[in-house]
Amino acid sequence: MEGIQQGAPLGAFYEFAEKVGSGAMGEVWTVTHSLTGEIRAAKVLHPEHGTDPKLVERFIHERSLLLSLHHRGIARVRDLVVEADRLAIVMDYEPGGTLSEYLSHHSTLKPSAALLAVTQVFDALAYAHEHGIAHRDVKPENVLLSQQTQGDLDGVLRVTDFGIASLTESATRHSTGIIGTPYYLSPESITTGVTGGPADVYATGIMLYELMAGRTPFAGPGTDFAIAYRHVSSQPPRLDLPLPLWQELMGLLSKNPEDRPSAAEAAGKTRVLAKKYQDLDALAPLPEPMYFDEAEKPTTAHRGIVPDAEGSDSGTEDAVPSEAEEAVPQETPELGDGGQKTIVRPMARPDIDEPLDQEPSHPEEANRRPAWLTNKVLLLSGAGVILVLAVVAALIWGPGMSKDKPKESFAAQGEPASPLPSGLSVQRSAEYDPNSGTARLKITYSAQKADLSGDFLEVIPGVNGGSCPSVDWEGASAQRNQVSVTGLEAKCGWQLKDLKIPANDSTEVTATVHMDSSSEKDLKDWVKSVGDKTEDATTDESAHSTAYPAQRLTDIQVKAPDRAVNQSSLNISLYPIWPSGPDTLNPLFVSPSKGEPSKMLSSISSTKQDVHFTDGCAGNTVVSKDGKSVTALSVAPQCRVNASVGNFTDLQSNEFNITARGK
Asked: Active-site positions?
């Protein structure tokens, strides 16, 4: 971070001593208190956070709350410093490093040791939750050790970064990207963006799994999005643990946040289980699974309705024949009696003194006009009836009802879609003007960690399957999608040319569509059809096309030679994977590279974020300074190369070996 030098002052009482770490939010320095000489740690946020007035306001507002968190399991916040564009959180210095660093020296922990470790984390979370603060980023990197140790962790763990989670809450809550580390995200934070206490419990459950298995449950090949979505769609691979311990772990990792225990409840259970299974040996590290089992989906059962012998539903339990009950599957859940049942009660008949078919006892009274019914009353009543009929006729046949279209505009919002592997998110909304017969469709494209650019496809169908409407575009140059040019068939498709979407930002395009819409529901259905038709076209597995990469790329394959010679450059190719499969004829990138990057590569990343290789061979390969070429350094039997391209991270090559020259 520019501008920080050793010995420089921080606030009124601290001096910077030594930089000890850095992360996505800023840098960590040790600082010395100028009056007491105490060494503390300061997390200095990146300068852009200091220029955000809302975050600065929250920083000042939350100061007293963060300073009040006094718990032995929490790295205590001592001060919050605001000066110019610099924001810093000063806290106790914990010299033992992070739990992540501790894990790097231990493949797996004994179940009892892992349980005692997360018990300390749950105790800290329970205290914070009682004070209205959720962490929102629980992971081993945010758990510190109060002392250097390679043995027992009991009593030495401190949860940190509560301040960061609380202060940046408003900024992260409205982000369009994946917030947090994908390995520890809760299902609800991915599907709804909701975070809080249950999400902290889930992340700690992931950490417990990692401590015992040597890896997080959903780690594996794929992009950040693919890994994150496994939290929603997949079951954790089974560990060789006693059933009560496994059931407790699965309770922490429940897909439904309401089914998880609170942090306090979890702490009590893990503490008991640690004592019960203190003699269990550590598990062998869990290998990377070949596939993940799909998570169970909820089912619906109806109380009191049982299919009869012909397969129809009976409205009451008593009406079902006994032989039909035998046809009900035994695994049907028993829901018990309903809280209320429909009860038919007879209604009392009104008393009738005389038969209805007989004349009244006093016919002269039956024909007599009531005293209040005078001629004047009859005249006024008739005039009132005529007036009411005139008003009704005016409403029915008047000029205001001569058209079916409403005069006032109405709007509809499309449902938000999950981000694509490239980091692209799309949100659509529309407003219809019945006077002009046009809908203004607003399309918002957002990017995550990498710039996106190039051509984009939008399918604008007619209402209720009608013919393709005429469209006027604003914010983009557009032309009809031509199959002969793009290789992609899309009825009513439009090719938006040369859009640019900056990382962590968005770009809006507006389409004025000439169409008829009679209601808000029709408009909402049409907006949904725009998204559905566009998705159908871009995910068509039969299409062999390189068009629209930001929308159509599903993954990237890293291909290295099966054998390399030491002291020579590795020829590595990055192949795009489309819905139809890998495309080895049109590589995204070839290393060593020559010339300018391909148009496909530029569309999913900026120049600074395009391709970056890292060593995956324990130091037996060396990567160039720009990260774009790899050299085999020394003999090794099993090697891989890691790569990242824009939003596609955690890419890994095939396995290869490095041999000596002449062999």
From this structure: 137
